[in-house]
Amino acid sequence: MLALPVLPIDTGRYGMPEMVRIFEEESRLRKMLLVEAALAKAHAELGNIPREDAERIWEVATSGVVKLERVKEIEAEIKHETMAVVRALAEACGPSGRYVHLGATSSDILDTALALQLKEALAILKDRLAELTALVARLAEEHKGTIMVGRTHGQHALPITLGFKLAVWAAELLRHLKRLEECEERVLVGKMSGAVGTMAGLGPRALELQELVMSILGLRAAEISTQIVQRDRLAELICLLAILASTLDNMATEVRELQRTEIGELAEPFDERAQVGSSTMPHKRNPITCERICGLAKVVRGLVVPALENVPTWHERDLTQSSAERFIVPEALILTDYMIYLMIKVLSGLEIRPDRMKENLALTKGLIMSEALMLELTRRGMARDEAYRLVRSLALTAMRSGRPFAEVVLEDEAIRALIGPDELKDLLRPEGYLGMATKQVEKVISLVSAHPLVARHLRRRTR
């Protein structure tokens, strides 16, 4: 019977091909076979099995001779995935097949194969995240002086720059990159410890055997394990991916908010030649890519609960985590990687509208500079609380009347006695009230540029 795709990752709607391939059945099988081959090679190194038999097992396991179709045939009969792989490999190896899976248990193969998948996946994910971080840093540098309204509670607050906003994102993305690197030591581990983890079936040099297998595979050996590698490791990774997805959600939400008709300061790319915004409203230009990022972030965050619930197991091993992991591990990595790709697309073609930013700066007719006035009055001798009450009263008057803030302020005798008209005009310029915004942008760019992966992407762009 022909298998038809069901989920949007399977249909190709979501996910990048290089990441999806890592978690396909064929890739999983090849990694399981590689673990079996490494086990045989390690046994031979220790003199437990003949070297020629180990070489035969390695040759067959790594050559593609064992087919997925054959493994599925055996599994349909015996109802055991790992044993189906073992039998398919053993029968393809001929007499040498008697040494396949010697002393191992299913989880030795499954957990170590999963670690190999995670190693590949994290390499892709880190590189793509570094690319995004470099892109955000470049935009922050380019727009460190592009002035715009800073908003709190959805209201105009104080002037900032677009570069400052982007630098905040760049610093956050750099933290995620470092978190992923730090967790690799705990996540990229395999095991070869047999049933219940005591290594009883692997001989007197079992610890050495485990180290040899992991060395061949380029993994670390778990310090200790039961029949499975403990799931706190995977839970940590899924939690980190969910936090990263939430950052991407935040970035996409900000672009969406600033693309609102009433604001119009940013807009995600839109192909005017062919792209359709709405099936019925020809004028629409919807931020659908950012909305897709926000939607997928909900899915990734939803994977945290099963990841945490996989940590408890009965005694030395049960199978409750297995079925959940077949969903949550590929989904978390594929979707997070895809969200990063989408954000790179958005920011690479981001439409930035400085003129609209200036228009919005003027919307409150100077009210966003009330803090600057209050603090200057304090510096010139007025008590801070008195200055606050006075400026608040003048701000309310300006709001109610719709008059410019400076005009209302100049009518106040107490203020005129301390600040002249020309001084006030200069004081209420948004461009003059950016504090350390530019210096902070430069500091973040320096920090981000020091990371080797990010630096590589920055160099690529400047060539």
Features:
two-stranded antiparallel sheet, 463 residues, Ribonucleotide Reductase Protein R1, domain 1, mainly alpha, Fumarase C, Chain B, domain 1, two-stranded parallel sheet, 5% strand, elongated, Fumarase C, Chain A, domain 2
CATH homology superfamily name of the largest domain: Fumarase/aspartase (Central domain)
What structural category arises from helix and sheet content?
mainly alpha
- Total strands: the figure is 6
Q: What is the overall shape?
A: elongated
| Helical coverage, percent range | 55-70%
Poorly predicted ranges (pLDDT <50, ≥5 residues)?
none
Order of helices and strands: HHHHHHHEEHEHEHEHHHEHHHHHHHH
Order of the strands making up the biggest sheet:
1-2
| Radius of gyration over C-alpha positions, nearest whole angstrom | 30 Å
Q: How many domain modules?
A: 3
**Main beta-sheet annotation:** 2 strands, antiparallel
CATH top level assignment of the largest domain: Mainly Alpha
> Based on the structure, what is the oligomeric state of the protein chains?
single chain
What fraction strand?
under 5%
Which CATH-level-2 architecture of the largest domain? Up-down Bundle
Intertermini distance: 52 Å
CATH topology call of the largest domain: Fumarase C, Chain A, domain 2
Count of separate DSSP helical elements? 21
Return the average pLDDT rounded to an integer.
95
Explain what you see.
This protein is mainly α. It folds into 3 domains: 8-99, Fumarase/aspartase (N-terminal domain) (Fumarase C, Chain B, domain 1), CATH 1.10.275; 115-144 and 156-360, Fumarase/aspartase (Central domain) (Fumarase C, Chain A, domain 2, Up-down Bundle), CATH 1.20.200.10; 367-427, Orthogonal Bundle (Ribonucleotide Reductase Protein R1, domain 1). The protein has 21 helices and 6 strands. It has helices spanning 8-11, 17-22, 25-45, 51-63, 68-78, 81-93, 106-142, 162-187, 206-217, 232-258, 288-302, 304-309, 320-348, 354-361, 370-379, 384-401, 405-410, 413-416, 421-427, 437-449, 452-462, and strands at residues 147-152, 155-161, 189-190, 220-221, 266-267, 351-352. It has a two-stranded antiparallel ribbon with strand order 1-2. The protein has a two-stranded parallel ribbon with strand order 3-4. It has a two-stranded antiparallel sheet with strand order 5-6. The model has no long low-confidence stretch (mean pLDDT 95).
